[in-house]
Amino acid sequence: MITAHTDYRVLPPEVNAQAAIVAAAEPTIRFATEEDVPLILSLIRELAAYEKASSSVVATVPSLLSTLSFPSNPRGFAKTILIFSPPTSVPKSISSAMPDPQCAGMALYFNNYSTWRAAPGVYLEDLFVRPEYRGRGYGRLLLQELARETKRVGGERLEWSVLKWNEPSIKFYEGIGAKKMDEWVTMRVDLEGLDRMTGVGETRRESAGGR
Question: What's the whole-model pTM score?
Answer without folding.
Answer: 0.78
